[in-house]
Amino acid sequence: MRTMRIMLCVCLLAISIAGYAQTPYLMDPAYDPNHTWLGWYDAGLNTLPEQQGWSITNSPADSQPCMENNVLCTHSTVLQYLYWARTDKYICFPTDHGLVVEFELKINSSQYTNISSNRWRTGYTVWAADHQGRTIRVGIADTGVIMSNDYDWGYENSSSFAPYTTTDGFHVYRLVIQNNIGQLSIDGNPVVAIPAGSANQTTPNRILFGDATYHAFHNAELKFLRYGLTLKTGDTDGDSVVDLTDLGNVAYHWLSNDCGCMSCCDGADMNHSGRVNLEDLAIISLGWIN
Fold first, then answer.
1. pLDDT (tens digit, 9 = 90+) per residue, 68-92?
2. Which residues of 10-22 are buried (b: 16+ CB within 10 A; e: fewer)?
3. Which residues contact 190 (CB under 8 A, 6 or more apart)?
4. Are 166 and 141 in contact (CB under 8 A)?
5. d(CA 185, CA 188)
6. pTM over the 0.90 mark
7. Domains (ranges, CATH) in the chain?
8. Stretch 151-156: mean pLDDT, rounded?
């Protein structure tokens, strides 16, 4: 049975390689062979995030986001929530393949403020939560960055505030979470790190960006945000090579629909959808030809 599955996947792989340019996933500008991206927002398409599959929260709706020159512009001048989120992919912090969140952002202004003696807020935030509700949150102000791993942004569960000039242009921020440790880099320079929090801190499998703290103002411009695995595209076993072993993993788990988060069917569920199907084979084919 497994031999038949492998033969089927080899045939499908050949078809995928021959026609990979027609696959929407492979055509997406977020593609990077060094990672397996699970989701993204690309302001270069000149559409708002909700038109690219993200859910928006804007309450009260005093300030409206807009597109200007292929950049998402947001601002808040009153206390409000204005953010976007997705929860459609399995995310696991305590693994080697973990999670990477990368975004290019310019802060025009963003407050860093205390709302009590032991809690803080920033005007712009990006955060991730895994399948058990463990969370790492990045607060970005115009004077620097800070990270938290709890629901209430408490100082006792936060990093120190790291001074950084975020207002002098666009910067590429990169949050890598592996084995329950989150490391934030800006333009390739490590800035601050923090362990992931305990379970049940927030909505599971959540990626969020924007003003989600309510107690601080901001004005910012975003070019893109993408998130995914630290694994090379198509690499199911973490050896940095896409080969017959990876194809065999896909074949063995072909049409499985109960892939758990920790193993994701031995890595065969490349897009963390909970299933192994043609979408995963398309990702394998992309890694194969690169």
1. 999 999 998 778 899 999 998 888 8
2. eebbeebeeebee
3. 183, 184
4. yes
5. 6
6. no
7. 2-31+233-288 (no CATH), 36-229 (2.60.120.200)
8. 89
